[in-house]
Input
Amino acid sequence: MRILILGGDGYLGWPTALHFSARGDEVAVIDNFAKRQWEFEEGIEPLLPIVPLHRRARLWRKLTGKHIEIFVCDLLNHHLLYRVMAEFKPEAIVHYAEQPSAPYSMQNRNNAVYTQQNNIIGTLNVLFAMESHCPDAHLVKLGTMGEYGTPNIDIEEGWLTLMHNGRTDTVLFPKRPGSIYHLSKVHDSGNIEFACRTWKMRATDLNQGVVYGLETDHTAFNSELRTSFHYDDVFGTVLNRFLVQAAIGQPLTVYGKGGQTRGFLNIHDTIKCMALAVDHPAAPGEFRVFNQFTEQFSVNILAEKVRNAAARAGIAVKIDHLPNPRLEAEEHYYNAKHTKLIDLGLHPHLLDDATVDLMFAAVRKAKDRVDPSVILPRIKWHSGGDRIAAGHEAV
Amino acid sequence: MRILILGGDGYLGWPTALHFSARGDEVAVIDNFAKRQWEFEEGIEPLLPIVPLHRRARLWRKLTGKHIEIFVCDLLNHHLLYRVMAEFKPEAIVHYAEQPSAPYSMQNRNNAVYTQQNNIIGTLNVLFAMESHCPDAHLVKLGTMGEYGTPNIDIEEGWLTLMHNGRTDTVLFPKRPGSIYHLSKVHDSGNIEFACRTWKMRATDLNQGVVYGLETDHTAFNSELRTSFHYDDVFGTVLNRFLVQAAIGQPLTVYGKGGQTRGFLNIHDTIKCMALAVDHPAAPGEFRVFNQFTEQFSVNILAEKVRNAAARAGIAVKIDHLPNPRLEAEEHYYNAKHTKLIDLGLHPHLLDDATVDLMFAAVRKAKDRVDPSVILPRIKWHSGGDRIAAGHEAV
Output
């Protein structure tokens, strides 16, 4: 199949490209290296250095004989995007190419506007480019479980059949997200559903949980094929951050009470889910939604899992509760359905002790590269315009 | 009260400014005259000429002694917007300053992206500017009943209390809008709700129905104080368009079967609703939604009302059914609640025969200015990028 990966330089985009390339698909990636710039803005680095995309693709070709084509393209440059679609004629498009950090989007007005503009307009351009050049292609779009927020009812997979005043309808599941970034994903979902309904396009929206893990089978093949791993307060996700805090002997910092419950999945399963979605495309006109995670945990449970792994490795680690920089419920009902990917054949990698131990050992090996000054939360949700990142205007 | 009107040059913004100014409020308006440019792009004009805003404001001052301050500002220019907020320190902000046409947004990629960027980012800038300079001000934002689409259940005012699997929650009413423009309003609503929740701002989202009418008490005061009235396929709303078709003896063009049912209101009631919302502000942290219309009609019923008014004036008019350029249900359930503004004291102007006759007489007086070539629908929903307006790129 001809598969175009948007955001192919990233944590998930790169291993996804390797996966499809390894199994014989014709793979091209698009990236504009925006994430590399955000790292400089925030003064942060991945735990281990990531060589440039072009070099990784050359190495992959040398090792496997397989070619991954690279298009350097900003999705806001629609002229170029249309040309890529016309030239490569993808049958599936996997779309990771968005600003993915809630704290980044909440840093100040500039980053909030950048996030919504980049994500919403970039995705609109993808939809129009597809409609013009490959209207039968299947869009597989990375969304987030954070689009739903934490409602007091069970979270269904994208659609909800409800009864109201004696009548019934199936509606888009009501969303109530918790950051400007999460809102951008909700807005994307609305725009994509409209394109499916109006232009008979086919799309799968993957409401993904929080991903953990350092590597996949293919990135582990050679150290220069590795993918990025962030532990900082802006791009680091919670389990990855706890592992790094434990590795350097710092307390694990839980935000608030720690009863915040979310869906989680192993990076191995992200890749598997992408493949399942691509191999079982949505029908023309269908806006299909999968909740892409394998287990629910509270932040407190995750902290305990990491503390226990550290203890097994002979390291005593404390758990601290910080004032919550975010505005979110810290104790709440959470029951999100996630059966559709299982029905397609997903066999989850669960977060057992052996998995935590393996990740912890890998992080410990790199602990001398950790910058402890970028782990504690610097960005707070409660005000809207007074935080300046280096190189950024105040508003 | 100090009231800032965003979009003060427009069909509704100008009469709103006059209303508050006349009763003694301190009024300033913002506009960037974008609508004047869209008119040139589309080759259309209002039914009667509208003098420049500065001249209208001078005339108003001469006639009444009352000053309306004008800030020429694009909401995308956040530096200037922040300065306006800091200088004028509004207590209420009435926000009409968006691209308001569904067909315009569906014309091609350029207009789709322009509409979402202009509306979403402009409103984000308003939220951040308020948070910085007047966080206690009340935002009264013009939304649209079109955000809801046509669900098979009763439409509530913004929020829905529902039961699912034995549990209950109150959620944002699920939306399923029918154009890129309508989507932009849904996205605005999500962003504003977040600002209320996170920054304790106060906002009222007015999901307005389709407005009809040529004038208000204050715009009728002098012919050069009049507000714009569009009858073309891009900016003309359905009843206004039918009145013009009847006035020039053309058939009334119903799109499809004509069972499309929507909420409608008289422009007099729009102004009254705005005043009621401003005078009864939302509480800090409250995202309040009013469904702002007074009566539901199908398009067929409206066509009959206009045909009957023309018959009473001695003009025989036919009703034609055209292939629908839009993608929308043409026969559907529709029952939208609209009690909150009534509870605040709205006494609706209903669409009785006398009202239609008065509007028809006013339109007939101007019939020599009608351009019959801009009335039939030119913009179709079914494809995404192949329509070029003069001066616009194809994509």
Chain A has twelve helices and 14 strands. Confidence is low (pLDDT under 50) at residues 387-395 of chain A.
